[in-house]
Amino acid sequence: MNMYLISDNVDTLTGMRLAGVEGVVVHERDELRSELEKAVADKTIGIILLTEKFGREFPDIVDDVKLKRKLPLIIEIPDRHGTGRKPDFITSYINEAIGLKL
């Protein structure tokens, strides 16, 4: 199974290509939907990497694929600008999950 990157910037794609991961750069909603459909249809792709920006800007498209399909696995990764999450996102996630302040 291969990994495939759908990125919003060329720098992330270049870095992933150096690691042997092929991919594409898209910027528009329709481009994202089209590339996701192509990647999902390709049975050689087991993991689709998406930059976090797509999860924030187009959650309906990303969640639709995540919820309706077992494969490929979709993972959101930070891009070269870093993550859009708060520095303590793991701690706050645990606090919400168990109801205790750590």
UniProtKB/TrEMBL annotation:
Q: Any idea which UniProt keywords this protein has? A: Ion transport, Transport
Question: Listed GO molecular functions?
Answer: proton-transporting ATPase activity, rotational mechanism
This protein is called: V/A-type H+-transporting ATPase subunit F
Keyword Transport on this protein? Answer: yes
Q: Which family does it belong to?
A: Belongs to the V-ATPase F subunit family.
Give the matching InterPro entries. Answer: ATPase_V1-cplx_f_g_su, ATPase_V1_fsu_sf
Q: Does the keyword Transport apply?
A: yes
- Output the superkingdom of the source species: Bacteria
Alphabetized Pfam families for the sequence:
ATP-synt_F
